[in-house]
Write a structure and sequence with these properties.
43% of the residues lie in helices and 8% in strands. It is built from 5 helices and 4 strands; from the N terminus they run ααββββααα.
């Protein structure tokens, strides 16, 4: 629904979620630890809360919100916010 609403590729969204949160667990916190601190990213699309101060943990772990957020960001050309998007883009380039 959100891929269509924002005119983005649904398969790209699915691949980003698979990469960011392979369990499709909406309450998952990032497993990345940097300098002894666990990254403050949450949900299906691993929204980084310090980078988005207007988004709460409740928003990030809400399935509808996070999927729409991903679709909107992709529509706005901000897919590079996700490491998994950058990996997908790099792997799909012709060699």
């Amino acid at each position: 629904y959100y891929a269509q609403k924002y005119s983005v590729d649904a398969e790209t969204m699915i691949r980003i979620i698979d990469c960011e949160n392979g369990e499709w667990n909406p309450s998952l916190q990032s497993r990345i630890i940097y300098k002894g601190v666990r990254e403050n990213s949450w949900g299906l699309v691993q929204i980084n809360l310090p980078s988005h101060p207007n988004i709460t943990k409740a928003h990030a772990t809400d399935t509808e919100f996070s999927i729409e957020f991903l679709a909107k960001m992709l529509s706005d050309g901000k897919g590079k916010l996700w490491t998994c998007y950058r990996i997908l883009q790099k792997s799909s380039r012709p060699k």
